[in-house]
Design a protein that fits this description.
The complex is a heterodimer of chains A (100) and B (719). With 100 residues, chain A is of the alpha/beta class. Chain A is built from five helices and five strands; from the N terminus they run E-E-H-H-E-H-E-H-H-E. In chain B, helix 1 packs antiparallel against helix 2 and helix 14 packs antiparallel against helix 15.
Chain lengths: 100, 719
């Protein structure tokens, strides 16, 4: 999975391309601190290119959401496909995130 | 039982028919011989009659010949006797002339009628032969009184020549004789004298007694009065009449015979005397009024019949005996044939039952596991005879397919028994052994230890873990199966020894991993070595070619059978044909306990989705659930730093897929993890527990079991 981070002032856009399976999530988790710092502002998770997400990926999303909640920031999930929407639904994530 | 009774009845019936046949044959033979005997007897009797008649005629002619000589001699002397009436002194020389000129005439006289000659009231000069000399005497003596003698007065009375009754001459030669006499008339026609010729009858005995048509036949000559002139009993000759003999025997048949003979008839009568039955042929001797008979004992007539009769009788007995023997043998043969047929039928029946039992020993309902989509298996045995020595077997225990194929040395019933033993051993041993090497070693120990018949079995045994596709196999001298992956090749096998040869033999096991769509084709040499009428073998190349077309398991077997049938044509099936086709259709992944292995799931699931024709959302969703289960095992099953495997299997069903994730790590039941509350707010939501939650939510059923030291998580997705 390819992860592109674009930070402009207090809005950080993270673009995912590919499959966020466990290995990919573990890789991403290495940059979790950077992302969590950005959670004081607005973090846009651009999921247009995300094909797949595992629970470890969801955990990163959740950690990010928790950080945002703690720092008064905001996490926006953009353009999720049907499968991921389904996962969000079954995990209650639809209630935790602002989905665009 | 019923059949047996009917058959016994048949045998009895046939024996009864045999006895009847013997009786009929005996009666026919007896009748034939009786008829033959009757006609033979008639022929022999007719022959005896002919012989007797011809003898009678011959004797008659012989006698007549002599009689004629005498009569002629007398007749020729009549004129000179006539002349001598006027010259009585010449009468003596006339008589002498007659005797001299005719050797058969031993005496002669001319006797004048008393008073005819004036000077000699009685005058009869008699000339007779005695030895070489001619002697003379006068019969005109008082004591002889010739005018009272038959030979004198009878011709004068009758006016013709007359043969006297035979008599023994007491006056002259003292021999048996008869006299022929003729009357002599003078020129005035008065009775003047009688001229005679005496005929000795010594020759008669010779002529008549000589009749020997049969060795013990004899003849009897009777005078006109019934006096016995010739007969074998000398005491009777000129001493008894036939009637005196008849009254002496008290036998009326002799009397009647005498009467018949004296009446001048000729004919044939049966006469019994002295305990013997005789055929008597009789005829009158012309001129003399004598009657001759030939007596032939019947036993003499039919003597010729005795020997042939004995031979024919003997032959008949022999024939009957042989007929009885033949019939006995035949009836026994019939019984034997019956019992052979019965035995053959029984054996055929038993073979049919044997065939059914044998076929019942092997799985024969196909598809055998209709609920399973991970396995397509089919097998067939075509025995060359009713029962054979080939076998196959397969069954599933603990998600493992145990399968085997074998070929017992030899054919027919002995092979079938060994086959049954082999199959039983395979079944019983593989119930608690998972290792094909152990299974074959154990089978071999049992079979080799009690192998008195020196039969052996080639056997290939495999144990396929249907979850993982892991195949363990062991070969005991059997031909290598075909292995179908991307290409067709022989499964690499260690030959080992066949079962039943060396009890201590250790069978080396082999292993490999089967993947989705891999297949195995097991067969016996009856397939590759099927022979056509030109003694050509079907061969593995043909087999490989047929199997290269994509078909299901049953389709492959049918195609091979059809190809063999086409190839073999009319040639008889030379060996049992046995095949087993096993198509592994299980999606299986074997993963190391490394997180990076998770990336294997994506192509696995894509392939699965393609096979089941699923949309990408469904594939992705199931992938997520599967990944959660697998990553859990990869990360936590094995202690850190140790290597282990996690097996992923997808079993395809019509409307569901069954995922089985297994590992050999420390026991852990993910289904025991409490459910998370997805309604909680961000602050309260725990980081963990999402994975198992997604598994539970995506899959329709999730269950865990700990089996054989393995954690087995089974998840089913229905659609």
């Amino acid at each position: 999975m390819e992860t592109l981070i674009d930070k402009q002032q207090d809005t950080t856009t993270v673009r995912f391309n590919g499959r966020m399976d466990t290995p990919a999530a573990q890789e991403l988790a290495k940059n979790l601190d950077t992302l969590q710092e950005a959670a004081s502002g607005t973090v846009i998770l651009d999921c247009k290119g995300l094909e797949y997400i595992s629970s470890s990926g969801l955990r990163i999303f959740l950690a990010l959401r928790k950080a945002a909640a703690a720092k008064g920031g905001k996490v926006i999930v953009k353009d999720i496909n049907d499968a991921i929407r389904n996962v969000f639904m079954m995990t209650g994530f639809l209630n935790l995130f602002e989905i665009r | 039982m019923k059949i047996k009774l009917i058959d016994k009845g048949f045998v009895k019936k046939s024996v009864g028919a045999g006895i009847l046949l013997i009786i009929v044959a005996a009666v026919t033979l007896e009748a034939t011989s009786l008829i033959q005997f009757y006609f033979s007897q008639r022929a022999l009797k007719a022959e005896a009659g002919m012989r007797a008649e011809s003898e009678l005629e011959g004797t008659n002619n012989e006698i007549l010949d002599i009689i004629d000589q005498v009569e002629t001699a007398v007749r020729n002397s009549v004129w000179i006797a006539n002349w001598s009436l006027d010259h009585p002194d010449s009468m003596k020389s006339v008589a002498a002339r007659i005797v001299k000129d005719n050797p058969v005439i031993i005496g002669s006289t001319i006797a004048t009628v008393p008073g005819y000659l004036d000077k000699r009231p009685l005058f009869s000069p008699y000339v007779y032969q005695e030895g070489d000399k001619l002697l003379y005497t006068s019969l005109a003596t008082e004591e002889y009184d010739y005018p009272s003698q038959e030979w004198f007065f009878k011709p004068l009375q009758l006016g013709t020549g007359y043969w006297s009754e035979p008599y023994v001459d007491t006056g002259g030669a003292g021999i048996l004789m008869t006299t022929y006499s003729m009357p002599i008339y003078d020129k005035f026609g008065r009775k003047a004298a009688v001229i005679t010729a005496d005929l000795s009858l010594d020759w008669l005995t010779e002529v008549v007694g000589d009749v020997k048509v049969y060795p013990s036949a004899f003849s009897v000559l009777l005078s006109r009065q019934g006096e016995i002139m010739v007969c074998p009993a000398d005491s009777l000759v000129m001493n008894r009449t036939v009637f005196e003999v008849a009254s002496g025997y008290g036998d009326s048949t002799i009397y009647q015979l005498g009467r018949a003979m004296l009446s001048g008839e000729s004919g044939n009568r049966v006469l019994s005397f002295e305990g013997k039955v005789n055929q008597v042929y009789y005829a009158q001797i012309e001129k003399t009024g004598w009657s001759m008979s030939i007596v032939i004992p019947e036993e003499e007539i039919y003597k010729g019949l005795k020997k042939p009769l004995a031979i024919v009788g003997g032959l008949q007995l022999l024939g009957l005996l042989m007929l009885m023997i033949i019939l006995y043998a035949l009836s026994r043969n019939t019984a034997k044939y019956k019992s052979l047929t019965e035995r053959k039928e029984r054996i055929e029946n038993e073979l049919r039952i044997g065939h059914n039992i044998q076929m019942a020993m092997v799985p024969k309902v196909f598809p055998p596991f209709p609920e399973r989509k991970d396995l397509d298996i089919s097998a067939v045995i075509v025995p060359a005879r009713e029962v054979g020595g080939d076998l196959y077997d397969f069954f599933i225990r603990d998600n493992k397919l145990f399968f085997g194929i074998g070929d017992v040395s030899g054919k027919g019933i002995p092979a079938s028994l060994v086959m049954a033993v082999t199959r039983s051993l395979f079944r019983s041993i593989s119930t608690h052994a998972d290792s094909p090497g152990l299974i074959l070693s154990t089978m071999n120990k049992s079979m080799a230890a009690e192998n008195d018949s020196n039969m052996f079995v080639t056997f290939f045994c495999g144990v396929l873990d249907l979850l993982t596709g892991h195949l363990r196999y062991c070969n005991a001298g059997h031909n290598a199966p075909f292995f179908f992956s991307n290409t067709v090749s022989h499964l690499p096998v260690i030959p080992n020894l066949p079962l039943g040869i060396e009890p201590s033999m250790e069978f080396r096991e082999q292993e490999m991993d089967l993947h989705f769509d891999d297949a195995l084709f097991l067969f016996t040499d009856g397939v590759s070595e099927a022979e056509n009428s030109r003694q050509e073998l079907f061969g593995e190349d043909r087999l490989r070619q047929i199997l290269s077309t994509r078909r299901d398991a049953q389709g492959h077997l049918d195609a091979v059978r059809e190809a063999i049938a086409d190839f073999v044509g009319n040639a008889p099936q030379s060996d049992d044909i046995t095949m087993l086709f096993m198509h592994f259709l299980n999606f299986h992944l074997k993963l190391r306990n490394e997180v990076s292995q998770i990336s294997e799931l994506e192509p696995f699931m894509r392939a699965l989705g393609k096979v089941k024709n699923l949309d990408s959302e469904m594939v992705t969703t199931m992938n997520i659930a599967l990944e959660e289960a697998v990553i859990n095992a990869i990360m936590y099953a094995y202690p850190k730093g140790t290597q282990g495997f996690v097996d992923v299997v997808a079993l395809m069903h019509d409307h569901s897929i069954e995922f089985i994730v297994s590992d050999s790590g420390t026991p852990f039941d993910p289904t025991a993890v409490p459910e998370i509350d997805t309604t909680k707010g961000v602050e309260d939501r725990p980081i963990g527990g999402l994975g198992i939650h997604m598994v539970r939510t995506i899959m329709d059923s999730v269950s865990y079991s700990r089996t054989d030291g393995k954690n087995i998580l089974t998840m089913t997705k229905t659609f």
